[in-house]
Amino acid sequence: MAIHPDIQARAQAQIDDIDGRERMPNFDDFDKLPYVQALIKERLRWRVVVPFGVPHALSEDDIYEGYFIPKGTDCVVNVWGLNHDQNVYGPDAESFRPERHLDEQPSCANETKDEGHCAFGFGRRVCVGRHVALNTCILWCFNITPAEDESGKPMLIDANQMLDDGLTIRPLPTNRYKFTPRFVEMEEVVKNELELNGFSYT
């Protein structure tokens, strides 16, 4: 969001139209937020956190494109490659463009439970945290911008340079961000929402 302020603003405008500023978004709102849905799908496609997914073992012998794969074989999937396949996402697959999920469903939609990306895995055992990943509250609460250096100049963010932890990747620690509350009442609304749901606010 820090490097795509126009996309951030469009998503926030849609959230404001549905939720206003008196309450936080919830899961019941999600179907009314098509652009926000597209943004989240694109974010998960564009920079997947687990680029080679979680290995799966074959439960029975299989033949794939002429190759025999015996039962018990661990298979590792190039999720990054699938999510950047130009045959599926077009020649601009390296670009961050939420509209691609609005224009038409990518050809992988059926294989990805209509997610439009492979970030949550495959088969019956997809990521258990997928619904948390789809939460939109941060955009409702904050404007996300690059942090500023000592002179007040926005710091450069390089989305193409990532820290590889082996199983996962993440942004470099030199990529710094600033979260600014979007409106004065935000903290009070968050506090009330937490307390209504049985959480303490500190």
UniProtKB/TrEMBL annotation:
Origin superkingdom: Eukaryota
Recorded GO MF terms: heme binding; iron ion binding; monooxygenase activity; oxidoreductase activity, acting on paired donors, with incorporation or reduction of molecular oxygen
Coiled-coil region list: none
Pfam families hit by this protein: p450
Cofactor names: heme
InterPro entries: Cyt_P450 (IPR001128), Cyt_P450_CS (IPR017972), Cyt_P450_E_grp-I (IPR002401), Cyt_P450_sf (IPR036396), Cytochrome_P450_fung (IPR050364)
Family: Belongs to the cytochrome P450 family.
Name of the featured protein: Cytochrome P450
Organism of origin: Clathrus columnatus
